[in-house]
Amino acid sequence: MARKTPGLNTSAMSDISFLLLAFFLMVSNINTDSGLARRLPPPLPEDVKPPEVKERNIFIVMVNKDDQLLFNTEYGNIRDLKARAKEFLGNPRNLPHFPEKNPTEIPYIGVYPVSKGVISLRNDRGTSYNMYLKVQNELTAAINEMRNELSQQVFHKSPYTELNDEQRKAIEQAIPMSISEAEPTKIGEKK
Amino acid sequence: MARFTGKKAKETPALNMGSMSDIIFMLLFFFMVITTMRESTLFVKISVPKGTEVVKLEKKSLVSYINVGVPQEQLQKQYGTEPRIQLNDQISEVSDIIGFIEEEREQRSEDERAQLTTAIKADTLVRMGLITDIKQELRQAGALKIFYNAAKGAVK
Known about the structure:
heterodimer; A: 191 residues; alpha/beta; 35% helix; B: 156 residues; Nucleotidyltransferase, domain 5; 6-stranded mixed sheet; two-stranded parallel ribbon
């Protein structure tokens, strides 16, 4: 029986299609990589000795093969690392056993006492990468917090990453990312 | 049997094109779902550590990846169970890194070379010995901008 099929109303179909399209557009993400950016020091020429740094200007963080921490000469906990790093780099009360400061003229900020402190990070070959990154993360957190505080103080804006390029550079100059990693030494093997 | 000889039979009925768009959309969705941006297949198992201070990696075209981890199960007969390095599409040795960096530089124009970043994508269980070796090689190669891959999340 040839019966005429009634025309289907398909105009709503496009709406549904678009809805789906919009949904996938929203939930799909081109997987972006995230992580911590660092700069390696250039290779040392053999005959040049590394510059001497005063003891008060160094904060040593050591991680051994069992992922235990040593701050200068005492055992430490990863939870205290951020506070210790901030205390060291900031030296708010100008204590004699904390780093010296070097007053520097910085655009936007004026004369700012830039800390001469360097955090020296040393790790064993047996240290786990997980622990190493945790330490790096805590140190970054300390510096970021200090930068944010300064940014709030000077520009009344925080976090400092939202400032414009020149302002951000000024903040970065006032509180440099002073983490130094020791030349690798071999102490005990644990693969 | 006038029904078979009638005039009507000669006309081809018009095809209903209305559902064509649906088919096309279905194909579109299918491809959208199965597509992942091309990355070299990983021969090593990697679960990156977590961090709270992570930033996004900018300019993906200027990044060369070094993957570090234990080889996948089916490759462990060939490469063992110790953490290995994967450069591009093959398991390599630490000593291959300098050559790899040179190659990556060759592919970029002169003014982009300075911005070349090396992303170290390493598994949480890798020991620092291997990572340190990689970093020393990168220093020798002059690839000083590095990036430790980590996922955003609270540190346990």
